[in-house]
Amino acid sequence: MALGLCAASSSGGSGSGAGEQLFKAWASQHRREYHSEEEFRYRLRIFLHNKQKVDKHNAGNSSFRMGLNQFSDMTFPEFRKKYLWHDPQNCSATMGNFPRSSAPYPKAIDWRKKGTFVTPVKSQGPCGSCWTFSTTGCLESVIAIRTGKLLNLAEQQLIDCAQNFNNFGCSGGLPSQAFEYILYNKGLMDEDDYPYQGKNGTCKFQPQKAVA
Fold it and tell me: Locate the Cathepsin propeptide inhibitor domain: which residues (predicted)?
């Protein structure tokens, strides 16, 4: 599996010299530093292997394209160990038996095609904060659908401030409990006013700057 985003890939020659130059440019762009020639060569081989998979995919007739990104010098086992959870959450949100209405459901809805209702893709980094992105993404879209205004809400506020609602910052949490925090806390700030750090911090919520 190539570690690439769904975007157009960078072009580069297939020769080792051109490949190495492309890798150096990529490493500079993503501020990668390698502490030995051995490490540099190891990451170069992984990078070229991932690029080959990206190029092969893009040469086909898939409905999406792949590209190089900040993970392209990592193997998938390395990526999985650093960024993905190993065990499923066993909680009311994932284990409950919730009834559905009998109304007919559409096979699919792509809100991106219906207007400006979805914020761009975000990265949580190595922090286990997926619950905050689920919360803000849902709230951002609901507000946009209701008001026509798309906000970019602060995941970092939830990481730093929602512990009293049984959330644990970068160690996990639940959207349902995050919504409770927002309700009783009376607001969530904008990303620009409370930027994402991807690590646990002290709560810096300013009620006068709440936008949702």
Answer: 23-79
Cα distance between residue 191 and residue 172, in whole Å: 20
Burial 13-36 (b: 16+ CB within 10 A, else e): eeeeeebbebbeebbeeeebeeee
The whole-number pLDDT of residue 11 equals: 40
The CATH number given to 113-209 is 3.90.70.10
Helices (H) then strands (E): counts for the chain: 7, 2
Q: What is the pLDDT, as a whole number, of residue 194?
A: 97
> Topology of 18-74 in CATH?
Helix Hairpins (1.10.287)
Q: Is 198 helix (H, G, I), strand (E, B) or coil?
A: coil
Max CA separation in the chain (angstroms): 63
- What average pLDDT does this structure show over 93-106? 67
Question: Is residue 101 scored above 90 in pLDDT?
Answer: no
